[in-house]
Amino acid sequence: MLTYKQLLKEAAAICEGAQVNEQLSRRLLLELCDEFNVDLYMNIDLPVDVSLQEKFDRYLIRLCNHEPLAYILGYEWFFGRKFECTEDVLVPREETEELVGHILADIDEFFDSLPIMIADVGTGSGALAITTKLELQECDMFASDISVEALSVAQKNAEQLAAKVTFLQGDMAQPLIDQGIIVDVCLCNPPYIKNSEEIQLSVQAFEPHVALFGGVDGLDLYRRILDQVPHFMKQQSILAFEMGYDQKESLVYEVKSRFPDSHVIVRQDINGLDRMCFVYFNRCF
């Protein structure tokens, strides 16, 4: 019978052969240990629980077939909270947590009174909308998505995390416009991968393409929402995008060509890459 240390070593070798990051197998074991109420590092030299190892072995096969760990486990952690993930939604990323942090700071700086109205356009799993609502209870939160299946996942996450979010089905901001909802802040993490761009096999094969690819230059959905801005955002408001690391100049051009008087700040992520674009309408700096 293998010890936990031996199981990790064996799994690392299997992952290497499958060209999968061995750290994913370590995280898989940590998550399963938590499920089975086992402290991995206190028990590292003890025999592995039989039921736990059986589940680990099944999941490791899927991991080595390049299936995202979040889909294998059925959830992903975001801002310290567990979000259900299915193949109907994009897996929440750590980089997107930084977007939340920045927008919370901006709201604190720019809005003197609460509540304010916030929308998450293209919500997917609901991670952005739900997290922002839970961190800022004084806001009215709306979230839209074109996918009925994605909205079902998002609504379940909101219920499990006790977040009051109004979900709307439709293309980008159109359901907000149709209902006459005018917001102070819009969050948006649209598909931004270029159609011709090569991406990780685990992403290409498993994650929903409607949430990944954004046209020839990756900016199709940005243009669409920018064109919608006058119809659902207040004159004094903030629009916050996640974007591809190489899209700064193109995205700023799209913003400025429509809103020449807006103030645009591109922020870098923890890796020093340009990954967030904040647009401030009628705000003094």
Could you explain the architecture of this structure?
With 285 residues, the protein is α/β, with parallel strands linked by helices. It has 2 domains: 4-65; 89-281, Rossmann fold (3-Layer(aba) Sandwich), CATH 3.40.50.150. Helix content is 43%, strand content 19%. It is built from 11 helices and 9 strands. The chain has a 7-stranded mixed beta sheet, sandwiched between helices. α1 (4-18) runs parallel beside α3 and α10 (220-232) packs parallel to α11 (248-258). The longest helix has 17 residues, at 94-110. It starts with a helix and ends with a strand.
Concise summary:
The protein is α/β, with parallel strands linked by helices and 285 residues long. It contains eleven helices and nine strands.
Low-confidence stretches: none
Q: Tell me the CATH topology of the largest domain.
A: Rossmann fold
| Spatial separation of the terminal alpha carbons | 64 Å
The CATH H-level superfamily of the largest domain is: Vaccinia Virus protein VP39
Number of domains: 2
Largest sheet: number of strands, sense, barrel closure:
7 strands, mixed
Task: Count the beta strands.
Answer: 9
**What is the highest CATH level, the class of the largest domain?**
Alpha Beta
Instruction: Report Rg.
Output: 21 Å
The total count of helices amounts to 11
Strand arrangement within the widest β-sheet reads: 5-4-3-6-7-9-8
Strand proportion: 15-25%
Helix content: 40-55%
Specify the overall morphology: elongated
| Class of secondary structure makeup | alpha/beta
> N-to-C SSE series?
HHHHEEHEHEHEHEHHEHEE
* Nearest-integer average pLDDT: 91
- CATH hierarchy: architecture of the largest domain: 3-Layer(aba) Sandwich
